[in-house]
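Example 9 (inverse folding). The structure is encoded as follows.
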């Protein structure tokens, strides 16, 4: 489900960027919500909080792209 929802988000963005179509922000917002829900289910199933996911990602990106 997560990959499918991410693909739907990217489809909207691609049409906007590559084809110059107006961005349907409401549709993108709904699709992002679906992707977030799927991500939350995966994390919860594995006993990982979204807070921990976000914190670790920030650490990783700071190490990769130091200021």
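The amino acid assigned to each position is listed next.
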């Amino acid at each position: 489900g997560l990959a499918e929802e991410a693909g739907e988000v990217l489809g909207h963005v691609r049409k906007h960027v590559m084809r110059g179509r107006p961005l349907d922000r409401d549709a993108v917002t709904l699709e992002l919500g679906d992707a977030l829900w799927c991500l939350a289910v995966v994390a919860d199933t594995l006993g990982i909080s979204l807070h921990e996911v976000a914190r670790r990602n920030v650490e990783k990106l700071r190490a990769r792209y130091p200021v």
